[in-house]
Amino acid sequence: MSEFLPLLFTLTLAVFLGFEVISKVPTTLHTPLMSGANAISGITVVGAILCAGQMDNNLAKWLGMFAVAFATVNVVGGFLVTDRMLKMFKRR
Amino acid sequence: MSNSLIQIAYLVSVCCFIIGLKKLSGPKTARTGNMLASLAMLIAIVAALLDQQVVSFPMIIAGFILGGAVGAVFAIKVEMTSMPQMVALFNGFGGVASSFVALSDYWTPRVDGTDPIVFATALAIGISVLIGAVTLTGSLVAFGKLQGLVSSAPITYPFQKIGNALLFLVIIALFIPFCGDPFPAWPLILLLIASLGLGVLLVVPIGGADMPVVISLLNSYSGLAACATGFVLNNQLLIIAGSLVGAAGIILTVMMCDAMNRSLVNVIFGAFGAADSTGTTSGEQRSVMKYGVDDAVMALENATQVVIIPGYGLAVARAQHITHELDQMLQKRGITVKYAIHPVAGRMPGHMNVLLAEANVPYDQLVEMDSINSEFEYTDVALVLGANDVINPAAREPGSPISGMPILDVDRARTVMICKRSLSPGFAGIDNELFYQDKTMMLFGDAKKIVTELVEALRNGS
């Protein structure tokens, strides 16, 4: 378990940081925030690339391919739709 | 590229994510923020592609093309009224991607005994599969309810809570055989199946009105799934980005619960609407004053401040554009027009703001509940379009199912104008005292039709 300790430090600090940054987002932007969060949760694509890019053709590689596909839907769809929404917000 | 260079690229990516989210704190900088976050993602993807572990590209490219095409079509085609469904579906995709990565890592052949599975890895794989699978099926049920594919009514049956609790215990128990050497596959497969089932069972009893809470919570889970996968792969970037999403989801979940004056436990376990609706004043015959468009126009023309209270019904009827036209005509006559936005006015956090932005209503004309409530005293006309429970004064009294729910104090305005199809109660099934008050003008009919008539009458009058 000791190898997890540095990661737990990272996790804890990141959660505090997340609360700090995101509580400043005004309610007006909460829907774009959620679709943007969808896109960011696609970060798992990084892990998926490592899985899909291995040498042997096996179950692990196929799982990796589908993981890349699902995560890419989130990344591409999430960022594009967020931009589409944010474009609509105008001042008087 | 060397490993430390890749780590540095990940660090740059983390910084871009955080600055991007910081810029979401205002509508002016938000677009830049979103672009910065997508740049962060691009840096991370390029760095991952350059990792020495990656030796074959066809599968990756296939995944990119497939996912990119589907994602782009969704993003371009989706209607703003359907945003909750899309977010629900994407939560599910994030969850399934994370558990697939964890499963893939489990089945990756360990050559030369490098990076073998140990207790901690197995634990992380199990947690990642659990959260990811619950997020997937839970989100699919939420999607089905929001899209109307399945009934949005809460589905309850005997021993539901006990059954769910038992299933959860089974899942926890499966960790014991899985986390011991030689880390067999069968408990992992059972864990996956049981978690997929749990996701369905957890969301099935939750009613349509509570979906904003559910999709916020599942949003958080999709981040936590990415986080758990970060532990599997020993990857700090996944952990940080995942926790940012997790935090965002939790904050929104708490805000939605507060806006309905309900605890999270109550939303998840207490099927709303199925609760016994203690017979309020229904059955009692009371008269309402019916008014016509002419009366409404007169009241509007003589006003100095008009506050519009839009409800979800307005958006469904696609009446937000004509409402904006009405608002501009009133402003031309020197009347101040504001929109009062209740936190649960749409089907997800901030939904109504997006729907009005789509109709070109400037965002500084939209006022949050806490700020607008002190203004109703100086408001001549409160125009209610398709909202009901969020303006019901019964929330201030004890003994009603919505007691304690924060409401918009429209009854403090000089005149309350309510567009409604009939006297039927809203989601919560409670009669509204406001309909029968002397200051209230009831305009019966479809909101879009009434607003269109108001616009025409104002146009002809000027």
Question: Secondary structure elements and their pairing?
Answer:
The complex is a heterodimer of chains A (92) and B (462).
Chain A: H1 5-22, H2 30-41, H3 45-52, H4 59-88
Helix pairs in contact in A: 2-4, 3-4
Chain B: H1 3-22, H2 27-49, H3 58-77, H4 83-107, H5 119-147, H6 160-178, H7 185-203, H8 211-233, H9 236-259, H10 264-269, H11 293-301, E1 305-310, H12 312-316, H13 320-332, E2 336-341, H14 351-358, E3 366-368, H15 369-372, E4 381-385, E5 415-420, E6 440-444, H16 447-461
Parallel strand pairs in B: 1-2, 1-4, 2-3, 4-5, 5-6
Key features?
heterodimer, A: 92 residues, mainly alpha, B: Rossmann fold, 6 strands
Q: What is the CA-atom radius of gyration of chain B, in angstroms? A: 26 Å
Shape of chain B: elongated
Query: What low-confidence regions of chain A span 5 or more consecutive residues with pLDDT below 50?
Result: none
Strand content of chain A: under 5%
How do you describe this structure in short?
The complex is a heterodimer of chains A (92) and B (462). With 92 residues, chain A is mainly alpha-helical. Chain A has helices at 5-22, 30-41, 45-52, 59-88.
